[in-house]
Structure formats: structure tokens, C-alpha cells
Amino acid sequence: METNQVNTELEMLKEQLAEFKGRLNKQEIINERLIRQAMKSHVSWIKNMNYWMSVVGCIILPIIIVFFSKLHVSWFCNAFIALLIIGEIIFNIYNVHTINDKLMSEENIVTVRQKLLAYKKREKWQIIIETPLVIIWIILFLYDISAFHSTTDPAIGCIMGGLIGMGVMSFIYFREMRSLNRAIQVGEDFTNEQEQ
Fold first, then answer.
1. DSSP code of 99?
2. Mean of the pLDDT values across residues 83-96?
3. CB 36 within 8 Å of CB 109
4. What does the alpha-carbon distance between residue 91 and residue 130 come to, in Å, rounded to a whole number?
5. Residues 6+ apart with CB under 8 A from 47
6. 2-29 pLDDT, tens per residue?
7. Distance, CA of 73 to CA of 140 (rounded, Å)
8. How confident is the model over 52-86, as pLDDT tens digits?
9. Rounded CA gap, 30 and 22, in Å?
10. CB 3.0-4.6 Å disulfide test: which of 6, 51, 68, 117 passes with 73?
């Protein structure tokens, strides 16, 4: 009699434990979905901005070449800036492709976090490589302008335009890094919770 009662209680405990595990698994799935959604929202801004910057780069490239040609800027200086812009566009397309929606949906959170860290590293290397190239181009450009023009009006206008462009690009870069850091932090917090 007592064994039947113990067996019945044991069966009830097993059922309750299975039900509890089921609820716990559902809670973890919901938490992971929320984490993925938070990471996607941070990354979507980055993807959209890089997409639109690539479109703007494609539109502005021929305009810049024609404008600089009218200022009698050398073909070397024109080719240099054209290659910089084309390189930027290609790099943006490649780098954004590495954090696509499929990655954000199908991979586990740890893998997504690692991919975002790799994306961030590539972005930093891009800045490290591009900055000296832009400085070299500015020096070549100023030399070309001073060689063909007796006044500094075109140079001043181009410098002002360049400073505004650099300000906009700096804002976008730092905003991108802030969004990326938030997405990485969300993934790191989730990973730390899982380990505890």
C-alpha cells in the first residue's frame, strides 16, 4: 500500500518536473527570441546606413569626377578618389553581407556575437587604412588646385565641402559603432546569463 502511494507520489513529482522543464525551455526560447530581436534592431540601422551610403557613393562618384575635372584636377587625383569611393562601396557591401538576416535568425547567439565582433574589427581596419589614403589624396588635391588656380577660392570651397563630408562620415561611423556595441553587449549579457 505504502509502495503504491510512494510510486504515485514519485510519478506526480516526475510529471511536475517534466512540466517545469517544459515551461523553463519555453521561457529560454522566448528570452532568446527577444535577444535576437534586440540584436537585429541594433544591426538593422547599420545595414540600412551602409546600403544607403553605397547608393550615395554610386551617385556621387561621377559628379565628383566631373566637378574635379572642371577644376583641372589631375587624372591621377581623380582616379585616386574614384578608387577610394569604389573600394568603400565594395567593402561596405561585403562587410554588411557578413551580418545578414540569415545569420541573425539561424545561428546561435554566441556565433552571432562573434560575427559582430569580426564586423567591428573589419570596420576599424577600414578606418585605419582609409584615413592615411584620404590624407594623401587631400595633399595631392591641394597641390593640383594650387598649381592650376591663382586664387584659393576653389580650394577653400573644396576644403569646406571635405570638412562637412568628414563630419558626416565621422557621425555615421561613431553611430554605427555605438549600435554595434549595443548589439554585442546584448549578446554578451545573454551569454553570461546562460553560463550562470
1. T
2. 91
3. yes
4. 11
5. 96, 99
6. 666 666 766 776 776 666 666 656 555 5
7. 9
8. 888 998 999 999 889 888 878 888 988 999 999 99
9. 12
10. 68
Contacts of 30 (CB under 8 A, 6+ apart): none
Alpha helices (runs of H) in the chain, residue ranges in sequence order: 2-70, 75-97, 101-106, 109-148, 153-195
CA distances (Å), origin 145, targets 69, 109, 138, 140, 154:
11, 52, 10, 9, 7
Question: Distances in Å between the alpha carbon of 99 and those of 32, 88, 116, 127?
Answer: 18, 17, 7, 19
> The dihedral of CA 75, 76, 81, 85: what is its sign?
positive
For residue 83, the Cα-to-chain-centroid distance in whole angstroms is 22
Helix orientation angle between 2-70 and 153-195, rounded to the nearest 10 degrees:
170
- Burial zone of 18 (CB within 10 Å; 0-12 exposed, 13-18 middle, 19+ buried): exposed
